[in-house]
Amino acid sequence: MEYRRASSLIMYWDSGELTVENYLESRSTDEESENALALDPAAVELLDRFAEWTDDAAVIAEYPQHEPDSVRKAIELLAEDGLLLTRESAGREERFLAAWANWGEEARFFHFGTRNAIYTGDSLEQRRSDARWVRETGGEPPAIFKTYPDAPRIYLPRVFRPLTDDFGAVLTRRRTHRVFTGEQVNLHDFATALFYTFAPMQLYDAGDLGTLMLRTSPCGGARHELEGYVAVLDVQGVPPGLYHYNAESHALELIDAAFDRDRLHRVTYESEMCTPSAFVCFVTAVYERTMYKYRHSRALRVTLLSAGHLGQTFVLTNTALGLGAWQSAAFRDDEVDAALGVDGFAEGALYMFGAGIPVYAEDGMPKGITRAGLVDRAALASAAE
Fold first, then answer.
1. Nearest-5° angle of CA 142, CA 143, CA 149?
2. Which residue of 191, 220, 286, 325 sits 20 to 30 Å from the alpha carbon of 118, by its own alpha carbon?
3. pLDDT tens digits for 237-248?
4. Residues 6+ apart with CB under 8 A from 273
5. What is the percent of the chain with per-residue pLDDT over 70, rounded to a whole number?
């Protein structure tokens, strides 16, 4: 029989053992199952002989010092564990490779490796039991607010702009803006945008999980692991620089007064959208807040989704304020982390969004966006062929 080594294998050292995992192998959603297997050098060597479709008889012949049946059994065990494929079992992998051809191993492993996690249930009794277990195994919950107590601080006004626009009108008016006038953003608009994006609307007692905040954006388990840092460029009454937004105090804490447009231009890959903005927010994740309650790697999905929720709240709030906003993940991660003073491990940058006074074209669309006219469907179909 012919076999080939699976293409979806990840190998790493775990507790001194070389471990292999086929992230395409399905996991049970009813009971804990483990796809990762420890391999000895002989098994690794055997796997290496099946880089292409190879008849097992040819490989068995390469091990004259071993009984043929023992080598055949070892090959069959590797196939049972999903490390070797047969012609009959390779179809799923081939469909996967075709569908995910444009994305690398990192994305594939994360997406498929975090599928089919087991959930414990959502009854009140189960949630309380889970919370007790988290407290017993994790100790005191992490702080829900981050602060820089020694940093110079600017307290922002709490006289917020009323967000009275029709909700449907705000939804349909929202667009990504890339061109700005260069005028200063009003301080109250700026404070309103930060408050409704990052500040808690309420706090609640979560029992064993401690006190948690509730923002305008949803977040898995109300962990609210996301922090906001603001590069101020053109905001009325706020000196330019890089700040941390203290969500508890509704204040800016100065990190770097020298952070300017040139630095922003560099860390955002010379983006013509980011640099002209009046202010830019970098969103980081404090991973401990999520990991404290959720111990499965699937929770990282929720953190990424939460960043998207926060970004949507930001752009809708700015739209309601009459500002133009955008979102992007195009930044130099290491350089942004360094600018923020975070290590990228306990806390690291995930996302960014910004806003300014927008420039509109004559048709009411953001400048740089051309409204579609008549569409030649036949030409489109021909171009796609």
1. 140
2. 286
3. 999 999 999 999
4. 177, 178, 326, 328
5. 99
| CB contact at 8 A, 149 and 325 | no
Dihedral sign from CA coordinates of 188, 190, 196, 198: negative
pLDDT for 288 equals 98
The predicted model scores a pTM of 0.92
Which of the four pLDDT bands, split at 50, 70 and 90, describes residue 252? Answer: very high
- What distance in Å separates the CA atoms of residue 201 and residue 222, rounded to the nearest whole number? 12
Q: Torsion angle of alpha carbons 120, 122, 126, 129, nearest 10°?
A: 80
Handedness of CA 230, 235, 240, 245 (dihedral sign): negative
Contact (CB, 8 A) for 209 and 134: yes
The string of pLDDT tens digits covering residues 323-359 is: 999 999 999 999 999 999 999 999 999 999 999 999 9
Buried b / exposed e along 44-62 (16+ C-beta atoms within 10 A): eebbebbeeebebeebbee
- Per DSSP, 162 falls in state P
What's the distance, CA 302 to chain centroid? Answer: 8
* pLDDT higher than 90, residue 206: yes
Q: Please, what are the domains in the chain?
A: 2-113 (3.90.930.70), 142-356 (3.40.109.10)
The Cα-based distances of 46 to 8, 89, 97, 124 in angstroms read 17, 19, 24, 51
Q: Is the pLDDT of residue 7 over 70?
A: yes
CA atoms of 81 and 84, how far apart (whole Å): 8
- Asked if residues 116 and 35 have their Cβ atoms less than 8 Å apart, the reply is no
Tokens, residue 151: 């940093």
142/339 Cα distance (integer angstroms): 24
Q: Give how far the C-alpha of residue 289 lies from the chain's centroid of Cα atoms, to the nearest Å.
A: 15
Q: Please provide the size of the chain in residues.
A: 385
